[in-house]
Amino acid sequence: MIVQKRFISLLVENNAGVLSRIAGLFTRRGYNIDSLTVGETQNPRVSRMTIVMTCDTPTFEQIKKQLNKLVEVIKITELKNENALMRELILVKLKANDNDRSKIIEISNIFRAKVIDVTSSTMTIELTGDEPKISGFLEMMRPFGIIELIRTGFCGIERG
After folding, report:
1. Where does the sequence pass through the membrane (predicted)?
2. In the chain, fewer beta carbons within 10 Å around the N or the C end?
3. For the whole model, what pTM was predicted?
């Protein structure tokens, strides 16, 4: 069986405990969540969850069936590369001496990242993008010394 990253978007009722029930569904069955983001939609009574997991096809189909049984779940959409836009936000704090600052800024500009904080010994960069862009940027920044890295997890929406 082929194990791969799967992305699913859920529209759920914006009620207390919904996140806990969905996370509990994964926990009870021993499924791991790689990333989970949630936020209110244009309708304050509805939230969108984007869940990223690594699993095989039968497991993924089982997860979707179990999610469909939850009363608060309004709609489930599998997000695939060809039909979705996926983005993640990262904040990365780097060691930055006087000699490295211009190099870090130059690389950040190439990736359309934004410098959001500078001290005498550090720089903090903000970047939004898809997985290859985030990975490429982090690879370029590692030699400078990553002090701290924060990732939001992916959020996604269908194209069109």
Report:
1. none
2. C
3. 0.84
